[in-house]
Amino acid sequence: MARITHGLTTSHVPAIGAMIDQGRTDDDYWKPIFAGYEWTKDYVAKNMPDVVILVYNDHASAFDMKVIPTFAIGCADKFEPADEGWGPRPVPPVEGHADLAWHIAQSCILDEFDMTIINEMDVDHGLTVPLDVIFDSKDNKTPKKWPTKVIPIAVNVVTYPPPSGNRCWMLGEAIARAVASYPEDLNVHIWGTGGMSHQLQGPRAGLINPDWDKRFLDDLTRDPQRLRTIEHIEYLRETGSEGIEMVMWLIMRGALGPNVSELHRHYHVPCSNTALGHIVLKNEDAA
Ligand code: DHB
Ligand code: FE
Questions:
Q1: Which UniProt keyword terms apply here (predicted)?
Q2: Model confidence over 106-161: pLDDT tens digits?
């Protein structure tokens, strides 16, 4: 039986990818940002998942105003890095797990979560920057091949209306049921990406709210039920227009179940325009 053993979150700031590509991860500004992932790199290398279910948002790379799926699942064998304006990043293609992805799609849809099935999709910084910060070498070089398969779950948090945090949580629970009914013995991680507080536009651009972010990180283990009820307006007011990306963390948290411990945390301000948050959670029931 497949098991979701760990949940992990990280912000997905595009400048992190640019610094990796330009070999500038040792610059004074960037060094502490990358240092916060060292613990996780070691831990994940020793507990390598067979598959990562990677919850992220596309930033008008694969989707645009023509098509806006609320929840989409990548069922292809391969996803190429997107051209985000400067040519595709020099990272390897992302290898999918089509069989498990179709199983999750079927299970979720019959469980009344109508996912959009995607068979062809390029993936942008929302997906590849998290892979880099966890799977790069100790000196922050992108590997020639990603060490695990990845099932992309793309969530619309760019165009109003995004899904509610509670709906995201319930999708996480449905994904967990899907994984638990997959017959092969697989170690599965679920990652939630994006966040934390940040606003990229308008008069409040640059907004960061460390107190709110810290409480959100604390409550992933202390009071996760509270997080389900946070309304869009609170994300917007307290964490800026792009802070809404954090609803994706609740898909991760809903999938992990009740018995969760925090293994590692990294919080750093600022990272580009963002409060960078990263946490590693273990599903104690799957150990
Ligand atoms: C930044 C953060 C994001 O989440 C994003 O998608 C784009 C830019 C930033 O901090 O610059
Ligand atoms: Fe983003």
A1: Oxidoreductase
A2: 999 999 999 999 999 999 999 999 999 999 999 999 999 999 999 999 999 999 99
Instruction: Judge whether residue 287 has pLDDT over 80.
Output: no
Would the pTM of this model clear 0.90, i.e. be above it?
Answer: yes
Within 10 Å of residue 41's Cβ, how many Cβ atoms?
17
DSSP string of 159-193, one letter each residue: SSPPPPHHHHHHHHHHHHHHHHT--S--EEEEEEE
For domain 3-281, give the fold: Protocatechuate 4,5-dioxygenase; Chain B (3.40.830)
125 is catalytic: yes
Please tell me if the CB atom of residue 241 comes closer than 6 angstroms to any atom of ligand 1.
Answer: no
Nearest CA-CA partner of 242 in 278, 193, 191: 193
Residue bearing the CA closest to ligand 1, atom 6: 13
Q: Which of 6, 97, 103, 198 is catalytic?
A: 198
Rounded to whole angstroms, the Cα distance separating 165 from 89 reads 31
- Judged by its nearest atom, the ligand closest to the C-alpha of residue 277 is 1
Q: Parse the chain into domains and list their residue ranges.
A: 3-281
